[in-house]
Amino acid sequence: MKRTGTLLAGMLAEGAFAGTSGSSPVPEVGGRLVFSMNRNWRFSRLAVPEARTKDFDDSRFERVVIPHTNTRLPWHSFDDKDYEFVSVYRRHFKLPLGTRGRRVFVDFEGVMTASTVWLNGIRLGEYKGGYTPFSFELTPYLDFDSDNVLAVEVDSTERADIPPFGHQIDYLTFGGIYREVALRIVPPTFIDNIFAKPKDVLTLYPRLEIDCFLEHLEPSRETLSLEVTLRDGDRVLATGSQRVPPAASASDPAPHTVRLEKLGPVVLWDLARPKLYSVYVRLLNGSRLVDEDSCTIGFREARFTENGFELNGKVVKLRGLDRHQTFPFAGQAMPGRVQRRDAQILRNNFKCNIVRTSHYPQSRHFLDACDELGLLVLEEIPGWQHIGDAAWKDLSVDNVRRMIRRDWNHPSIILWGVRINESRDDHDFYTRTNALAHQLDPTRQTGGIRNFEQSELLEDVFTINDFGFPLRAPNHPLYLNTEFVGHTYPTKTIDNTERLTEHTMRHARIHNQLASNPQYAGGLGWCAFDYNTHFDFGSGDRICYHGVADIFREPKPAAGFYKSQCDPDEEIVLEPAFRWARGDESIGFTKGVVCSNCDHLKFYVDNKLIAELDPDRSEFGNLRHPPFVLHLQPFRNAWGDLRIEGYIQGKQLIVKRYSGKGIDQQFSVLPDDTDLVADGADTTRVVLRVADEFGAIRSFANDAIQLDVEGPAEIIGDNPFALVGGTGAVWLRAKEQAGRVRLTASHPVLGKRQLDFEIAAAAPEAV
Ligand code: GAL
After folding, report:
1. Cα separation of 126 and 153, whole Å?
2. Counting atoms of ligand 1 from 1, which one is nearest the CA of 487?
3. With a threshold of 0.85, does the pTM exceed it?
4. Hey, what domains does the chain have and what are their CATH numbers?
5. Active-site residue, from 215, 422, 554, 645
6. Tens-place pLDDT, residues 16-28
7. Residue 158 falls in the annotated catalytic set
8. Letter string b/e over residues 171-184, b meaning 16 or more CB atoms within 10 A of that residue's CB
9. pLDDT tens, residue by residue, 648-679
């Protein structure tokens, strides 16, 4: 498993490596070297067998940067066969001098779906699985003095021998080397993994137990020691050490545990203040550094109990959404910045406190952001309804292992999902997945997402998708609803007001019921973002419009419901679930729902007070912030601009305006970021919107927006891009040169908007 190469970064900054063409030595220090290997890949859609050999001439292959999708796609209405092919990637590299005597691994974070790897023409093996990390040891086949070539044949077809495949699935997997790659050079004895377990965190004497997993090339004759430091930023809070007796065997799966006892007071990791610490582990031979590694942790106690979910001893009602990690145009091949943005949207915009990584382990960048933002996570293994044969099940059990060993230090993760989503019961199989999860990680409970009530409970928490309303009563003491609404009410941003409103109300009703009984630990709605799917699901254009936001991450009114449940101290929210139009309902002009955490609303049309409202406690009495339901008849005879004022304890704290004129007035271009890094992968979203004169989206605007880019970046997306629901987005991806990028977006009527981006230089890759 790959972790950051802090040591390398430091040495590069000091100029320890002038280059790597076999001429610059590895400095005489211990420790590992981790080189990112994301640039300078050569790619061909056609995997010719000759491309496996070392001397193959790949100069005509396309030069690509990882994360990479094997093909760019439209945002909807395409065939999954378009990306289901076997492609080949090649990467040349030279090792730094002095690498001889060390062990060298290539670490892949995620390749969809099966990867056969050759080094210098020698086949190293095939890894089956698109969502889990894998490594190959290169040491015996390396040329330490000149060029080495990795060749990776990537099979992106839906192979029935690999989870989640074997039957139908309701999402697309896309293809390519879509997560980062690194070269890891370690000493013969090295740290394979660290699991830092906070203990007694709610007492005056919190502790830390750090399991250090070591790998030995040969039984060591020397006595080594482990030194562990807990740090808050640069401040050392505690240090401890432990002798490592001479190893009995080459592979030593048992960890060596170092205990840090006197930590002093630590700040707990919680939702409002997700405080993080770091743990540094050094493997020493006397005072000589052999290897080192680090991880980020948080001190928190997370338990599902009969009272619901408790974080640090306090009940937190879980309110969240399921997330697919797929994006328009690029499939799953989006870099850290874009992954992190999804977590920000869920936490900061939709005010969720939990996300489920449906239905597979997701990007480490997304999980890092969850740690930093205080967004809880239910992470699960790859799969959807189908269970394959014995070999398939073995892969699935191995997925449990890889998921947990990759992610066990994330404080945000509170539950491992160790079943194939919505599969039938399989006592033996799920006994294995559960036992493994508990054995690897005794600190966390397990769940496993099913869709039938009678399902055998082998896990700690009964996690179930309940799409009905009213919901079933909890049939187990520890009970979490992991999906609702979804396919029972697909909703598009261009749907009419009644549907948008009802979609919002359905999410609200479920959360209202979940709030009625403490035994419901809470719930996660299906789902966060619309997603691409197969022909036998969705709305007929290869999209499931199940999101509370569209595929571009632009919110629908239902997202306003989630948002409105936050504390007003965090943000004052006022989000109408209706479109301000007089004739968009089939049965006249009747009902307007507003999601808000205010306690009173006033409605004005053309500055004339039309209605005042309190939250609808009759239908939503269990919610802290019930929606407001406005009866619109009084507006019938007086049409004009709408103003809604939100009050808390008599004080007006928010106002929103909606034009009654029906004219597109403003065109805006909203980038998530304007500073990128010239590593060829860094990407940001650019949202395009047409609004009324007050800034409210004009949801029937569908103009084609022409985009022009000057400078070292490219557009990932349609160009021209036709707005849908008055909005949409493309992504801007930095090339490998630094400089200024100017994006000009032209609306056919509302004119041009220009944006400038700074693309900062990136250090070249050292191998
Ligand atoms: C569930 C399934 C999800 C998605 C959803 C649509 O049954 O677990 O993956 O297909 O339905 O509502």
Report:
1. 9
2. 12
3. yes
4. 4-186 (2.60.120.260), 189-297 (2.60.40.10), 310-564 (3.20.20.80), 574-658 (2.60.40.10), 666-760 (2.60.40.10)
5. 422
6. 332 333 334 444 4
7. no
8. bbbbbbbbbbbbbb
9. 999 999 999 999 999 999 999 999 999 999 99
